[in-house]
Amino acid sequence: MRRAKRALPLVAVVLILGIPLSGCGSESARDDGVHTGAGSGRDTGVEKGTGDATAKEAAKEAEKGTREEAGEGAGEKAGSGMDMQEAAERSDAMLDAVLEAIDPEVRWAHGPTTTRACGVTRRRTVMTVVSAERRQTFLDRAETFWRKNDYRIKAVNKDEKFPAVYAVTKNGFGVSVSFRGEGQAFLEADSPCVRESDVAAPASEPKGPAYEDVYPLPRPNVRSDFWSGAEG
After folding, report:
1. Would the N or C end of the chain have less CB density within 10 A of its end CB?
2. Sign of dihedral through CA atoms 92, 95, 98, 101?
């Protein structure tokens, strides 16, 4: 009995000592848990967040590139730093270039400039008579020039009397050549959405009379051995 009585205090001491030891073990495990959970959790969270942001940026860039290649969304790109005057000058350069590519050269005059909510349209009116037999040739030369310069051909109208071809640039400018009343050829360039501003008259000189303040412009009245054929 005495041995039992003496043993009890020893057990009690062990148990009492075991409690703080267990507590230290638990604290150690708790520390490890906090370090691993918080540390790795935070690290993983940051890496995952950065990865998601990078992935989103990459996706946006890829989508943007695809839209630009398709000729879509270019208006936003062009509009970010271009105003209506700059867009009009770009349109003038595009129209000058395609008219220079049409050989033999034709006479033309500036058509009216119009503005809309956030864009501008420049126009050229061909004053050379283009016979019905030569109209497709005229369009083919414009289309060939645009294809060589990476324009995307949007549509081609093969109508015998009023044919037309429509194209778009990678930065969202639309350009067209169309034949209308009495077989007169018209060229137009439409800008994408740009910043609003005043727009000055075109700086380039027309090939022929200027017809300032004359609207509508006369019907074609200049004959060409090549373009006019035997018509009238």
Report:
1. N
2. negative
